[in-house]
Amino acid sequence: METALSKATQKRQVSFFAILLLLWAADSEAIRYSMPEETENGFLVANLAKDLRLRVEELATRGAQIHYKGNKELLQLDLKTGNLLLCEKLDREVLCGATELCVLHFQVLLENPVQFFQIDLQLTDINDHAPAFPDREMLLKIPENVQPGTAFPLKTAQDLDIGSNAVQNYTISPNLNFHVVTHSHGDGRKYPELVLDRALDAEEQPELSLTLTALDGGAPPRSGTTTVRIEVVDINDNAPQFVQPLYEVQVPENSPLDSLVVTVSARDLDAGTHGSVAYSLFQHDGASQPFVIDEITGEIRLKQALDFEVTRHYNIEIAATDGGGLSSKCNMAVQVVDVNDNSPELTIRTLTSSIPENALETVVAVFSVSDPDSGDNGKMVCSIQNDLPFLLKPTLKNFYTLVT
């Protein structure tokens, strides 16, 4: 009786210490690596056995595995050498979009005994994209009485790279009438303005064509061009004025295409062609534009679909231009409203198929859950039936173990 009791006590103590070790591993600091994007397949990231302070043969005997969300295999562990190898080229822009710090999170699972480690792999940007303008040509209508020194905003070029590899400067083809100035937004993004140097004369030169070039900061730099076509028109006394300077709207992410977002309105006191108003949209960051405006009615509708998990806010500039080329602007702030459009996903790994009837605190399976929705729509509660002889225990974030 005393011997059996002593053995049972020892088993509970061993299980208790195993759980403490497991929790200690889950809370330990992540192992961090860094590499450039677009690195070739087979690249040696690191020797994981060395960094985990394990003998190489322990990786196989302990059933070492690499896990990434969705079970996509981006890294491969060579159990014979302990080397961590790259399985495929990684595109920073595809994996992280415009996010400046691109870090992929992996988990290392040792099955026997169960132990978790966190791996953070940072992808650094390379200059693999050239600047590109949204249109091959942009049109400016400028009255001939506009004074030298007047600045005209131009559309920005899009560059999927970040930091110094993004757009850094704009130039214009040599001419006597204009020069271009490169400005910076608060977040460092560059945008161009065309500045008038010499008064225009519609009778002398009714139209000009200039080449606008965007250059990034790579070595060597990459570039993209567009044509700026300028129509010099007669004077116009009044510019259009919007009814309100800011339109704030909320749009559910599951709104159907072509649904009406808002209608903007501007008035011009002039008559004839000088009093007709045409509407257009601008987005300075060069990102894909999910909205379209009717240039006559001012109706803004949804055009490519919204996704709260990708983009939550849009800040869009709206221009109203009359027939004489004068324009004014207002802003539209769009807040994308989250909809519970994603179901939780569960990935499970069974560790053992046979369990002794008197085994306590034995890990049966390991699984992870994820939900790309945000806020309350992304919160998950994991549970099992109350009448089962198992317990559900959390380990790393969104990781659980099923124990007897």
UniProtKB/TrEMBL annotation:
Residues 1-30 form the signal peptide. Keywords: Calcium, Cell adhesion, Glycoprotein, Membrane, Repeat, Signal, Transmembrane, Transmembrane helix. The keyword Signal applies. PROSITE patterns: CADHERIN_1, CADHERIN_2. It is found in: Membrane. InterPro entries: Cadherin-like_dom, Cadherin-like_sf, Cadherin_CS, Cadherin_N, Protocadherin/Cadherin-CA. GO terms for molecular function: calcium ion binding. The keyword Calcium applies. SMART domains: CA (SM00112). Its main location: membrane. This is Protocadherin beta-5-like. It comes from the Eukaryota. Residues 26-133, 134-242, 243-346 form the Cadherin domain. PANTHER family: CADHERIN-87A, PROTOCADHERIN BETA-5. SUPFAM superfamilies: Cadherin-like. It is a single-pass membrane protein.
